[in-house]
Amino acid sequence: MGLTAYIVRRLIYGIILLAGVLVLNFFLIHAAPGDPAETIAGAMGGATAEMLSGIRAAYGLDKPLLTQLAIYLGHVAHGDLGMSYYFNQPVISLIAARVGPTILLVFAAQLIAITVGVVMGVLAARKPSGPLSAVITVLSTVGYAAPVFWTGIMLIILFASIIPIFPVDGMTSARFSGGFVAHVVDVLYHLALPAFTLAIIFLAQYSRLSRASMIDVLGADYVRTARAKGLSETKVVFRHALRNAVLPIITVAGIQFGNLISGALLVESVFNWPGMGRLAFDSVLRRDYPTLLGILFFAALMVVIANLLTDLSYRFADPRIRTGGR
Amino acid sequence: MTKPLLSIRDLKVEFSTRYGHVTALNGIDLDLLPGETLGIVGESGCGKSITALTTMGLIPDPPGRIAGGRIVFDGEDITQADARRLRSLRGAEISMIFQEPMTSLNPVFTAGDQIAEAIMLHQSANRAEADRMAVELLRTVGIPEPERRAQSFPHELSGGMRQRVMIAIAISCRPRILIADEPTTALDVTVQAQIFDLMRDIQQQFGVAIMLITHDMGAIAEMADRVAVMYAGRIVEKGSADAILDNPLHPYTRGLIGCIPVLGKEAGQEGRMPPLAEIPGIVPPLHLLGQGCAFADRCPLAFDRCRTESPMLKGDVHKVACFAAEMEAA
After folding, report:
1. How close, in Å, is residue B302 to chain A by CA atoms?
2. What is the DSSP letter of A45?
């Protein structure tokens, strides 16, 4: 199967999946207790029965649920995610203003987790019963067990009061001035702690996985062949073994994207990162259904795109998938 | 007598296992002459692959360790060589092909890449030259359409072709010794014959000495000039291939030869096949080896002395380590 046909097929699956996500989320949210009309009215102060029914009529909340769904899907198909009940702004512009920081955070965390995790795993695999191996096992168990909000708070305590070298709040410095490069540096500086916090839990998984995968691959016949050629140990490990050992890591990295995004929403709240997490949190509390649905839709969209990228990189990394062999 | 290219003297290799130290090789003496084929034969676990890997300097250490003896290649004791020196020998002077062609090639690199890698490592060739030489080598080992096959990944090649690629890698730097560890065991019978033909061609063309490791006496009969029979980490019989096949002295060797299936006219009258022979029992685990001859428990000729004393390898050209054989000869 050609690459283009493959991508087209995957995109069609992705669209079907996203439509499913929309419908499911729509029903889930409407199954939740509470009346959004009261929330909308509540934000404006006390409300009479007429006001409430007026609000319901204005927002289409008096129509049957299936009709509401059809209207919503029709709007989404035209790129309209509706108006936020609370902010009274189009949901799409609310999200557009916040999706960038979230993507930045998620990708930075994923990059840190994969790079550091794989390096740790490879080093541990070279001496499976050595001290580094033991350290990694303990660290990764702790990293895996600790909830991200707790890790985040601990890091805030550490870096806010004990060794204050990293900013613990926001995305840019309040009194910021300077050019583009300085701005990038400033953002990366603010990114360090949230990204590391989010990375820890995944780093733990990747280091364990790459250790196991690497131990497996180092025992493979082709690694013996590489040694028999007279290659240096560095080339054997990083050229011959690692190329094969990363294959399962790519798979897991793709699967983890969803968890990474939900983790990001928590981390954003802890570090006051101006992404979709804060918005999601607020819209849950305020029963701001259109915003919440929009955020969930965007999260699903990001997962679908990330999975497509994962599959494409898998095809790139493993010729057996590329050419349809065993 | 020709000066041996490789001579192994009193080689001892130990492994630390959960049963304590076990001796995987216990005083091996072997000579490999330039351009000859030396067969090393024995069942699984007798130490033949360990002999090969030790010669390549590829024993995993730990748990393995050379506990004594010398391996002299072209006047240099390679048991004393450092890792860098061993790497410059491996693949260049001494190369090896393995039992499992299906898994011995790296699945993520093309056949051509894997050959070119060895060439660039040991010869002063740039990428383009190495690629060109890789295609030539594929032609040499009898792969059709070598230009196209150089671009193939291992999973696109059959087992026989993969073993040909392994052979191309092994001979890419014109080594003087080719160690073949059960090179045909995983292949179909017809492909086995082709691979042996190829190995013979290559030996004639390049003058390489071959150390052929196998459990198959049929392969020995076809390929080997001289033979060493191994059992439980020792050599129990050694001599020319003709002498050993025609007149095996050790009961273990006789057992191995008895295991070659006989077909056709030789099979006896009325086309009935004689039952396939076997050697009863298995190679004893190395940590359970006692004082006597390791084969005594499975030997039809064993007597009391065999269980208390270990026989030494004795004889002129055709040597054997067996008390029963000594008595027969006397």
Report:
1. 39
2. S
Structure tokens at B234: 């020792």
Residues 247-286, chain A, touching B (beta carbon < 8 A): none
* Alpha-carbon gap, residue B301 to B303, rounded angstroms: 7
Contact B58 A224 (CB under 8 A): yes
pLDDT tens digit sequence for A68-79: 888 888 888 888
Query: Is B165 in CB contact (< 8 Å) with chain A?
Result: no
Among A311, A309, A308, A306, which residue's Cα sits nearest to residue A103? A306
Q: Which domains does chain A have, with CATH numbers?
A: 99-279 (1.10.3720.10)
Inspect the interface and report whether the beta carbons of B90 and A227 lie closer than 8 Å.
yes
CB B213 within 8 A of CB B184: no
Q: Which of B104, B167, B173, B213 to mutate to test the interface with A (most CBs of A within 10 A)?
A: B104
Size of chain B, expressed as the number of residues it contains = 330
User: Of the candidates B68, B65, B70, B53, which has an alpha carbon nearest to the alpha carbon of residue B15?
Assistant: B65
**Contact flag B121-A229 (C-beta cutoff 8 Å):** yes
- Quote the pTM value: 0.78
Give the pLDDT of residue B274.
65
**Chain B residues closer than 8 Å to A220 by CB:** 103
Q: Is A129 on the interface with B (CB under 8 A)?
A: no
Can you name the residues that pair with B11 across neighbouring β-strands?
B28
Asked if the Cβ–Cβ distance from A231 to B87 is below 8 Å, we say yes
ipTM of the shown complex = 0.84
- Asked if A84 and A59 count as a contact pair (C-beta separation under 8 A), the reply is no
CB contact under 8 A, B98 and A229: no
Q: Please report which confidence band the pLDDT of residue B94 belongs to, taking 50, 70 and 90 as the band edges.
A: very high
Q: Which residues of B272-307 are buried (b: 16+ CB within 10 A; e: fewer)?
A: eeeeeeebeeebbebeebeebbbbbebbebbeeebe
Touching A: B residues 238-267, CB under 8 Å: none
Find the range with the poorest average confidence among A1-10, A12-21, B101-110, B255-264: B255-264
Question: Do residues B31 and B98 make contact, with C-beta atoms less than 8 angstroms apart?
Answer: no
Given a contact cutoff of 8 angstroms between Cβ atoms, the answer to whether B60 and B245 are in contact is: no
